Amino acid sequence: MLIGEVARRSGVSARMLRHYESLGLVRPTGRTDGGYREYTDEDIRRIFHIESLRSLGLSLREVGRALDDPGFTPSELVDDLIRQTRERVAVETELLTRLHRIGAAEPAGWEDVLRTVALLQALGSKSAGTRQRAALSSAGGEPVPVEALVEAALGENDPIVAGALRWALARGAEGGPALLAKGLDSPAAEVRERAVRSLAELPDEEATALLREALAHPDAVVRGHAALALGARGVAEAVPVLIDMIVAETNDVDAADALSALASRPGSADGIAAGLVERLAHAGAGAPARRRLAQALAEIPGVTAAGALAELARDEDRSVALTAAYIVELREGR
Fold first, then answer.
1. Distance of alpha carbon 26 from its chain centroid, rounded?
2. Would the pLDDT of 29 be above 60?
3. Residues of the domain holding 317
């Protein structure tokens, strides 16, 4: 079969077939009387083998080795190809994400594009100072896509930079709450905490609704940050989690302060006191937890809290009784 017909049947151009021949990948077995290349069926099978291996991403050099080296190990090459492909996909995915973000910023001209690119690069800088300046710039109105801000906030280790990023998100970046809420499902505990801390600083109703949902989150840290934020917003649904935090001695002082703030709202004090009293009766955590609950009652006004403290002043556990008696004395002296 002559080269022209081989090209037509194989889909490989005559020029490429000559290139393969120059590299020693496939040589026509014979020549016609006129000196034209003549390919046998075996030559054509080798051409198809070459094309199949090239389709996997092998270089022509690797193709030659695969076909001619008796010691060649296909599994090693396949593993290398998998690694290279993953790296290439990661690079292309990063580029695609960046392009989407630049498009989301709706640039009016190339200056806007370049400014957005510079800010995206700054957010990914190894320098904490550079990242902080980028976050502050975005808070000042520079067009940084909210997806980039959320990704930066969820991945930031430096507490100062993290604060700047949360502030930037709190400036009203549209779509921020829903994107942050996805971080609550991260398998990484630190990402979940960053997500809920960022949500806690967003003042809008959507963030409040998401924080309400977070009260049932399986991660106690997420529940705790959500409860503290909701307590500051006057959301009574946070009370049970705040009481749990006092029992567990997890940010218990902040939790008690949040309960006190909630109790100052009209009609709330007795219900909060009743919740504390119920946990006192069923805490099952020993004297330290009961003392913390008694101390939390100190800042809750109303007859329910007063009656509970008076009863605790006679508690069989001396440390709890002394704590309650001291609190009663202070309350009576006000």
1. 51
2. yes
3. 234-334
The closest alpha carbon to 149, from 170, 128, 126, 127, belongs to 170
Residue 37 φ/ψ, nearest 5 degrees: -65, 140
Q: Is 105 part of a structural domain of the chain?
A: no
3 state DSSP class of 84: helix
Do residues 100 and 92 make contact, with C-beta atoms less than 8 angstroms apart? no
Stated as kind and residue range, the H or E segment containing 72 is none
Q: Is 109 contained in some domain? A: no
- 291-321 burial, b for 16+ CB within 10 Å, e for fewer? bbbbbbbbbbbbebbbebbeebbebeeeebb
Using CA of residue 246, residue 250, residue 254, residue 259, what is the dihedral sign? negative
Q: Give the pair of three-digit tokens for residue 137.
A: 């710039």
Q: What is the pLDDT of residues 61-106, one digit of tens each?
A: 888 888 887 777 777 777 877 887 787 787 677 766 666 666 666 6
Helix ranges, 30-109 (H): 41-55, 60-68, 74-104
Residue 56, domain CATH: 1.10.1660.10
What's the whole-number mean pLDDT along residues 145-157?
A: 87
Euclidean distance between CA atoms 96 and 101, whole angstroms = 9
Per-residue pLDDT tens over the stretch 119-143: 778 888 889 998 888 888 776 666 6
For residue 307, pLDDT over 60 is answered with yes
Boundary residue ending a domain (11, 39, 72): 72
pLDDT at position 181 is 93
Which H/E stretch holds residue 30?
A: strand 30-31
Q: How many structural domains comprise the chain?
A: 2
> Residue 319's pLDDT is what?
84
Tens-digit pLDDT profile for residues 191-215:
999 999 999 998 889 999 999 999 9
Q: Report yes or no on 283 lying in a domain.
A: yes
- Which of residues 42, 72, 102 is at a domain's end? 72
Three-state DSSP at 2 gives: strand
- Whether 146 maps to a domain, the answer reads no
Report the C-alpha gap between 54 and 12 in whole angstroms: 12
